Amino acid sequence: MAQLSMATLKDVAPGVATPNYDRTQLKTGIVHFGVGGFHRAHMAMTIDRLLNAGLAKEWAICGVGLLEHDRKMRDVFAEQDCLYTLVLKHPDGRRETSVIGSIVDYIFAPDDPQVLLEKLASPDTKIVSLTITEGGYNFDRVTGEFMAETPAVAADLQANAVPSTAFGYIIEGLRLRRERGIAPFTVQSCDNIQANGEVAKKMFTAFAKLKDAELGAWVETNVHFPNSMVDRITPVTSAEDIAEVPTLTGLEDKWPVVAEPFFQWVIDDEFSLGRPPLEEADVQMVKDVMPYELMKLRLLNASHQGLTYFGYLSGYRYAHEATTDPAIAKFLLNYMEHEATPTLLPVPGVDLNGYRHMLIERFSNPEVKDTLARLCAESSDRIPKWLVPVIHERLAQGGDVTLSAAIVASWARYAEAIDEQGEPINVVDPLKDELIAIAKTQREHPLAFIENRKLFGNLVDNEQFTKPYLAALNSLFEVGAHKTVEALVK
Description:
Blueprint: E1 28-33, H1 37-41, H2 43-52, E2 60-65, H3 71-80, E3 84-89, E4 95-100, E5 103-108, H4 113-121, E6 127-130, H5 151-156, H6 166-180, E7 186-189, H7 196-211, H8 213-222, E8 228-231, H9 239-249, E9 257-259, E10 264-268, E11 284-286, H10 290-313, H11 319-323, H12 326-340, H13 352-363, H14 372-376, H15 379-386, H16 388-397, H17 402-414, H18 432-439, H19 453-456, H20 463-479, H21 481-488
Helix pairs in contact: 4-6, 6-7, 7-8, 10-12, 10-15, 10-17, 12-13, 17-20, 20-21
């Protein structure tokens, strides 16, 4: 069977949407770092919708890969002319399939760093966007400050260094633009971090000031970093997904993307060199994204943490399996309503009760097959950003944190790296070795895990938190995850 490419696009199966625009006539106004599944199911899909509507012809995307594992994307995109298949999986089994053409170029920076620098310096480049994960912003989990000592960053800070990080490339690109009299591009974070634009500004400005104080001050004053909230569940593409695509499209695709039908993108409308007409593709352009962002981080993202450890330890391996367990679903709804929602700002135009129940429906979609292993990963980046702020605010309000404390306890139990059947758990986390070592001591020293002030601040000193935490942890040890959840929702 033929492989997806511009030459074979004409052979795609009937009913599959394909680009109706001439890709050779587009300009790349957006340079995107981190071309993973989420970017391709979200921003790239949005630009493709605009292009198919005859809009945004100066806003095509040039993807960027910086890391060794990005070689695969380089090679696949070279074979497929940067085309890929997006499959939206509806709960009833229906597949909504399209070929996305909005990414028209891909630069694997280690091949030739100068090519990327010139792309960043080009007047055509007006937005530089990012999905580099929470850890990619390189800030200390406790202080929130930029970590200049990180080896790759420290190397990029050396005089005349050839860049290797997003910080090195973007700041050098801005320096070249300033030197050449070209206005700076907007830096658009699309990562799941509260106030992601503000975080990006703080970290990139910190790097720039360390590299060149005058340049750093110029970046701080002149470069726009709008906040955004992004939402679409996008599981890792599986071998089964790759095998299914030819039956849907008639063409092979070495790296398709699968996602749920739901899509939301809310952005502060602050772009220095213009932007695509994103509102024409159902993007919400607002004056303040913060209420929407808190809603998503504290309801959706934190609830993912609530279901994933309890679900995994209960023997489930997929999000939909865990969420269709009545005890776990009730646990999540109770957490969202009674602990998370009281910490939110008013969210214009949103029925929060409806939103909470919609999340349960989304998590329960059996077609998405989102793995609990994916949701369990990178916990040390996620829990401190999504759940710990809820706990602190509830404690400040004098409110109950029983369910939030239980979620932290479920992570602590999971971090022992042994499940309830005695089988090993593959813990995926940047602090893996440290966390497992601590967790393995908590049977004798129950507060050991939350004594990690880098992750939890002073929670260990607050009995309003430690009492329900210890109760949940002890229950996990004595009766297991599922009975613990059942007891919490009685």
